[in-house]
């Protein structure tokens, strides 16, 4: 009418009355719905419940065959905004959604050619099969499947933009990503069929997001590595000192407290165990280290305080073969047992114990009768002193022998401990590198 610019309310009323019907002149022709979205934020990932929370900008395009006008007859107006509730709109849903909090724009833009654009802002809580095996260097592939819920072949869906363009736009506008970053968006168009019914769907089958591992490397890996390094250096404490055992117990207690504090940062899921179980293995290795210290302490103190001889098989196996195997460096004033035992003179009873050079003097009973009782008492005191010194020397030699047995075993177990830690660290790093390179 004259005095009105563009389509009027009266002219639109007939279109609004057809809102329950699909806007197609020929109902055998399907309505094409084009879909594009921009991943604006990754709000959260819950590994235990396998839930991904994202925020999307969703844009729908379709053709409304009843809403067409000539711009020349409407003062050159080519586009108007109309309430979405007054028009038919495709029922496009996301199949994986557990909770859909939509903040849809109440208006759509209608072009004079009948093409309509509807922008929606979606907060999606969707199901996603999360793999945390390579945590914290994991990459997750989540699926968003867009399609019609009610219409089978009446509504056809297709992407409005190429997947590269959607990926580029998402990387450009991705803001609230937290510890996650977008890697790529890939997809395909397929047909979902149940019996005789078919639905066109768009499956964005690889919305690839990658975890930023800096937080976990700084708060988990580096402190754990430092504690393990301190545990390794504790082997350089004297093994005959009880300070090593108390130091290792304190270290285990501190590492346990560290794991309890960092427990909230570790993912928990029933689908698999992450490689980061490394922390539990490190705790087990610390316990093994403490057990090794207990064994060495027992060898150095318990056996030596009993004044028992070192068995011959221990001399051969530990002090000879194992010492040569681990390249044990003997002190300058002590020779290896294979050489020292060969040169030592044997005693009268056939043993090879070191002897003390005794002064050549007669026994008290061989002294002339003219000697007084004072001289006999002095000789008796000298005999007792000689026996006491001999006993002390024997005890010292036994302690030295057991001490060397303990040192050799300590060197051996320390190298085995280093080998275990090195092998485990190489396995973990290799698995992480293989997973990242995929």
TrEMBL record:
Residues 347-372 have a biased composition (Polar residues). The keyword Cell division does not apply. It comes from the Eukaryota. Residues 339-372 are annotated as: Disordered. CDD domains: LGIC_TM_5-HT3. Residues 21-212 form the Neurotransmitter-gated ion-channel ligand-binding domain. Residues 220-428 form the Neurotransmitter-gated ion-channel transmembrane domain. It is found in: Postsynaptic cell membrane. It holds the Pfam family Neur_chan_LBD. The chain crosses the membrane at residues 214-237, 249-269, 275-300, 416-436. This is 5-hydroxytryptamine receptor 3A-like. Belongs to the ligand-gated ion channel (TC 1.A.9) family. InterPro entries: LGIC_TM_5-HT3, Neur_chan_lig-bd, Neur_chan_lig-bd_sf, Neur_channel, Neuro-gated_channel_TM_sf, Neuro_actylchol_rec, Neurotrans-gated_channel_TM, Neurotransmitter_ion_chnl_CS. Signal peptide: none annotated. One of its GO terms (molecular function) is transmembrane signaling receptor activity. Forms serotonin (5-hydroxytryptamine/5-HT3)-activated cation-selective channel complexes, which when activated cause fast, depolarizing responses in neurons. Its main location: membrane. It is a multi-pass membrane protein. Keywords: Cell membrane, Disulfide bond, Glycoprotein, Ion channel, Ion transport, Ligand-gated ion channel, Membrane, Postsynaptic cell membrane, Receptor, Signal, Synapse, Transmembrane, Transmembrane helix, Transport. Gene3D superfamilies: Neurotransmitter-gated ion-channel ligand-binding domain (2.70.170.10), Neurotransmitter-gated ion-channel transmembrane domain (1.20.58.390).
